[in-house]
Structure prediction request, 373 residues.
Amino acid sequence: MLRRGTFLAGATTVALYLAATVAPAFAAPAVSAPKPPNAMLEALQRDLGLTAEQAVQRLANEQRAAASEAALTQQLGASYAGAWLNGDASQLSVATTDATEAAAIRAKGAQPVIVSRSIADLNAVKDKLDQAPAEAKAGAALWYVDVATNSVSVLASDQAAGEALVAAAGVDKNVVKVAHTTEQPQAYINIIGGNAYYIGGSRCSIGFSVRRGTTPGFVTAGHCGRTGATTSNPSGTFQGSSFPGNDYAWVATPGHTVTPYVRGSGGANVTVRGSTQASVGASICRSGSTTGWRCGVIQQHNASVTYPQGTVSGLTRTSACAQPGDSGGSFISGSQAQGVTSGGSGNCTSGGTTYHQPVNEILSAYGLTLVTG
Prediction:
């Protein structure tokens, strides 16, 4: 018997999984039983506090439950009101508005629950909440169909704000439960150098994570957006931008997590340790959302480059290639941040030259602190 926290591997995993599938916790249609990935089993043991056997059994139960739920959804039709598993996933409950369907539900190994509202009824109420005015929705953290209680739940930090959403949506208050929550939903996008971000229909690349005071953000190329322009994936706003003359900008991204990383070769992250300028002749690599990780050497510092839009001074010229969409992305030498991609000549098929705006000038211009590991 494996103890809690002992991870499965190899033949043991297969043996336990097969044992779970031939000794089901409840009857259901036969389904295939591919071996669960070891990484998944290990994570279930760690995060749900399961033994190795419990993790395997839970996955087998969930697979059978999914098959039963799919079959009953079709069979019950308009009377179907949702399904849910109990705490250890050993029992599937299926709700229906038609008491005569109880036997059919039991025949699939599930526990019947007779309710007054179908899943279609509940979804219709939730849809009305979705369509409420934006100002009413802003006061609630989240809302959802709760099949286990045959109701719709609205969670808000303030009870009155939740009730205001219900009123604005014009839904039956008897169907909706409003409750207090401490949840503060936000999109989790880690700011990593070289990843893409979007300005309307255009795409550029993140340079490096920075902070100004407590405000998180990233530096990028100035030609990617003017001050006040908004970004998506991650969401943010250009706080400052200079182009031509310079080619730098910084974007504030409240609610997102800044990291000391640049996306390197094969997607592996490279940790930024500082921003000491590398010498002419030193190797340098750049990361961007079009061509990924590309390397070369530093050819010159303090170059002035004339683009169709005007001249940019103080750039560093390198033999690393880049292409459109890489703009703003990270240049790094070893663990030291060097700059953000400005422009170039050529491409990554035939070869090219690329120029970057030194990062230390950007940090100084806007009073930013580089995020390092």
Notes: The CA atoms of residues 260 and 373 lie 5 Å apart.
